[in-house]
Amino acid sequence: MEAEKQITEAEKQVVVLKKFEDLILSGKRLQKKESETKVRKAFNFAREKHNGQYRKTGLKLPFIVHPVAVAKIIVTEMGFGSSMATAALLHDVVEDTEVTIEDIENLFDKETARVVDGVTKIKKVSEKSRLSEQAENFKEFILKMSVDKRIAYLKIADRLHNLRTMAGIYENSQMIKTAEALHVYAPIAALLGLHDIKNELQDLSFMYRHPTEYKMIEKQMLLSKKTRKSRTSLIYTPISEALKEHGYKFNIKPVKKSLYEVWRITTKKNITFDEVDSYVSLRITFEAQGDLPEKQQCYLLYALITDLFKVRENNLQDYISTPKSNGFEGLINDVIIKGRWVEVQILTERMNQIALRGYAKNHENNHIKEIDKWIRSLGQEIKLEGDELTEEYIFEKFYQTGNQIQVFTDSGEAVKLPAGSTVLDFAFHLHSELGLNFKYATINGDKNVVDYNYVLNFGDFIKIFKSETPLLEKEWYDSSKTGKARTYLRKYFNKIEQEFIEEGKLKLSEILFGYEIPDNLYSIMYKKFNCDTKNKLYLEIQKNEITTDEIKALLKPPAFFGQILNLIPGNISLLNQNNKKQENTGIHNFNHKLPFPVREHENFIFSTCCNPIPGDNAIIYFNSKDQPEIHKKKCDIASEANAGNGKRTAVVKWEGDSDTLFPVKVHFEGADRHGLISEISQIISSEMKINMTNLSFSVSGNIFKGEIVLLVRNKAGIAGLIKRIKNIKEIVKVTRN
């Protein structure tokens, strides 16, 4: 990272020229006379147009250093030549200067102009668009990428350099850029086979979004290095000897997951770092020889390994018969060493090159043709959605670049869905009517009946049965994984909810008829009935959770007739006007780049998906209804909001002392012993003086597991307790939900 210091303008220009000459020297193809001439022309043009613009970080160098750095990534890390280097040098001139795409085409060529156009953000979103500015830009990115996939490479290189030089910019700008990297650019990098770049995008994003967790995982990786090396050496030596004996030309190297992926495993499975078996794998690559198919040669090598080590039963992953969606081919299974599983991968050298380097250098590769086909079909899908297109649907398309499963209709038609999809997702994939009228399904035969939330497995055969009318329940939404299913479900429930809201609004206007209306009636009702929006109030009234008598108790009869006119059914404009100030929660008065002050007693929604409490690292997100939701930064919804609606998010700055007690669940486990529960209870109630509402535990053999529900005012109140419980000798793990 560039050091913070002051240098003169002349010195800055020297740095710029040095970086450009370094670019030319970095690729042999750039040093050919014709290529160098083209690249120098692009550099001089971009440098002139960006004159007076500077980077915001580090040495505050002229902006042109960014396009130069992006071009170097394109050449040295992706394997492209002068044409893409030229596009990289020009990629910001249309967005940041008066230059047009037509100018690029006239001065250079059509291909360069097309790639530059593909990475240029929309300056103004159409007022007709229902999408956020970010989502609209991602839609355009997909459409243009479907015409020329090189646009994706350039966009990834651009974001990678931004993340490498991001220290010093506004915190929420960091949250937006890193969320986009995690949700969009890292999945696309994985699809294109850019393994190392995908890992770096994830880890840089992880470092900025969750610095404490990043440092913790990084430290644990370093501390475990010696143990890990010792364990893998016990595999390396016998395998090497066996392969040499059978005449293989081979290589064995460790392959690491990104720190981000390791952290996601620990949080998703609620396990410790030490419990993650696959954060480092051993990859065996060999040169395929003779006429025997590669798959059979891989199986022969796998058979040698099963003779040497015990492998995990029913766990062999055959990605040769069915490659991953990013083109990865190989055999994967775990072998046991010193009581721990270690993942072993078997690939031919051809497979390894695809896994490591992607396809920038090999446009004739069969898989890149499949990727081209997939990207084109993706663009067609986006076009077909038309006005129905949602942010969720767009982001699902990026998620699908990760692991997918293949399942089949009862007639044998193959269907690919994101891993983790349910039978309800499958129904919506086939047809919206099947999803909306889903009744039940059968899996792999008529006797295996499953419900809407059955998670599909690779190779399942599925038959959907539907009802005459929708049987949908709201919890079905949470079980669905695909954007198409969630979009249709949301529309259905929103329609039903809107009908209930209108009924509640009508009922309230009838109750208020003839009464004197206090100016701050809505404020009174919000506080009295614990409702934070009018719509929630109307719903509670419609369901009779708020009764007529309870509302009338807040009113003073009678009112004069002129006041009543504004309260006829369907029109409550007077109340709207009186409470306009109360309802404005601040969406129009905040800067997304600056921390947003939050006082817990105001009308913020503390989301139940991640249960934030004062003191947590959190963001505020003004949702589509302008309701201010608070989410922990580590929450998936926070990340998705940053990625899709960044200008409606801000980093939370907690202010004031909390009066509210927040329920917090703490899980712990360890070795059972007499008096352990009593000791934990004593720490909570007497030593830490924290209110405890529930304590449950179970014992299996000598393994103890427990859960406490506590009432705390802020994060500080729970952090000390967790630390104290961890100090109990028998406790091996303590986590907060």
Q: Which structural class do the helices and strands define?
A: alpha+beta
What strand order characterises the main sheet?
1-2-5-4-3
Report the strand count.
19
Radius of gyration: 30 Å
Helical residues, percent:
40-55%
Give the overall shape, derived from the CA principal axes.
globular
Strand content: 15-25%
* Number of contiguous helices: 31
Low-confidence sequence ranges? 360-364, 559-585
How far apart the termini lie comes to 36 Å
**Can you summarize the main beta sheet?**
5 strands, mixed
Average of per-residue pLDDT values: 82
Structural commentary:
This protein is of the alpha+beta class and 737 residues long. Helices cover 49% and strands 15% of the residues. The chain is built from 31 helices and 19 strands. The strands form four sheets. Strands 1-2-5-4-3 form a five-stranded mixed sheet. The chain has a five-stranded mixed sheet with strand order 7-6-10-8-9. A hairpin with a 5-residue loop joins strand 8 and strand 9. Helix 22 crosses helix 24 (534-542). It is globular and about 90 Å long.
Features:
5-stranded mixed sheet, globular, 49% helix, alpha+beta, 737 residues
